[in-house]
Amino acid sequence: MKINDLTRINNGEIVKESELKDKIDEFLQGNVDVESEIYKLLQEEVLILLVNESDDPISIEAYKNSKKFIIPVFTDLEEFNAGIIKLNFNKLNFKTKAFYATLEVIKEYGKNQENFEAITINPHFQNYLVNKKQCDLL
User: Fold this and answer.
1) In DSSP terms, which residues pair with 60 in a beta bridge?
2) Where in 1-138 does DSSP place strands (E)?
3) How far apart are the C-alpha atoms of 29 and 104, rounded to whole Å?
4) What is the rounded distance in angstroms from the CA atom of residue 120 to the CA atom of residue 61?
5) What is the pLDDT of residues 17-52, one digit of tens each?
6) Which of 44, 91, 108, 117 could be a cystine partner for 62, CB 3.0 to 4.6 Å?
7) At a CB cut-off of 8 Å and minimum separation 6, what does 114 contact?
8) 120 contacts 69 by C-beta, under 8 angstroms
9) Are 58 and 97 in contact (CB under 8 A)?
């Protein structure tokens, strides 16, 4: 299986479908009981983010006129492709690429960034926020 097909590693087994996206849908439809499952899946699934040539994540401003930033992440290639168009990341004037990372990798990056505020999962569609404090608890 090519890396582009990778969405989740479950006990060493590669799984294509994102269970995380489905659980977030359930949560957004009012089933708050699945939030613990979301946090568990966040620790298991491989997320996709857009990075620049230096492998730094492309971020969005957390608040208007703020230095705080949010890192958009995507659950699968379909969401990634739709998201970069919806967020106009396809119009950036520098080279970018998809980068596959676990939450641990993203958390490590965030620890070294004073202005890191949160990640947002599928921001163009679900916009499920996990703030820095929540990330640290996972």
Assistant:
1) 70
2) 8-10, 13-15, 47-52, 60-61, 69-73, 96-101, 116-121, 128-131
3) 28
4) 12
5) 688 999 999 999 999 899 999 999 998 888 999 988
6) 117
7) none
8) no
9) no
